[in-house]
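hiii, so i know i said id send this last week but things got crazy w the move. better late than never?? heres the sequnce for the chain we talked about at the cafe, plus the structure i predicted for it. fair warning i was half asleep when i ran it
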Amino acid sequence: MDPTNNGLLENVEKANELFKKVFGTNEATMDARVLVNAADLGVQKAKQLRMGQGGFDENEYVTRLISKMGGHEIDNEQQAMDWTKVGKIAMKWSRKVPTMDFMLGPMAVEHKMRTMAQRTRVVRDPKAMRKPQELREEDIARQENETTKNVMQINNILEELNRKVNLFELVINPESFGQTVENIFYLSFLVRDGKASILEVDMADPNLGDVDEDSEPWVPAEGANIQPMVELTEVPTAEDYQGGLLKKQMVLEIDMATWRHLIEVYDIRRTLIPTRVSREAQEKGKWYG
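okay and structure toks below
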């Protein structure tokens, strides 16, 4: 506890050296206890500084400070202390250059008053309120399954023709590119289910691709006029699929330029599949369910 004794500092330095060899929790706990005790002893030693030899005396320090700044009494009048003298002495031992300080924050702070907004209750005028529209059974138009309906329509057209028909003459609608795409889409379901087939037929073949058991198959000549033909077929049975028959759905790409070109090549003036009228034009103002 003697102010001139450095034993506390020596013990702390020795503990720091020993801590390098600490690997277990027990030794770490003991090291922590040493630091706690050293801290407590350091506090007690700081409190007893002026009690020991060569200690710090606050009263003597204040007296000398006042005398250095010229703050002694003359004829019962207290002279003002010159703090610049102390500042010049302290500057000799300071490594920092004196800098100017700045004010942080606004020059004036105005207290914002919180305004309480009063909420007024909304009272609705019963006369201005409108009753929801009541729907009756006759106002609801039952929307049919358009896909199934249009697929069956193409199937019926092929049954009425009862012959092979050119693919493009069947699906192309010269009045509407959109309905041409829809016709190709609906026909693909008949091909997928095996109800219709698309064959490449040589138009010079008198049998148009039909193979007879007694006759030899037609061999197209070089540069023959090959066209895609559509015809109805017998629906495959479960035994056909078990025998290795695979379902194949038609995928056909078409754009407006190709659509116009096909109309000119095949001279398509009317469509075999009638132009469908939109439901909005048929039953305008009705609800769909």
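btw The mean pLDDT is 79. thought thatd interest u
miss u guys!!
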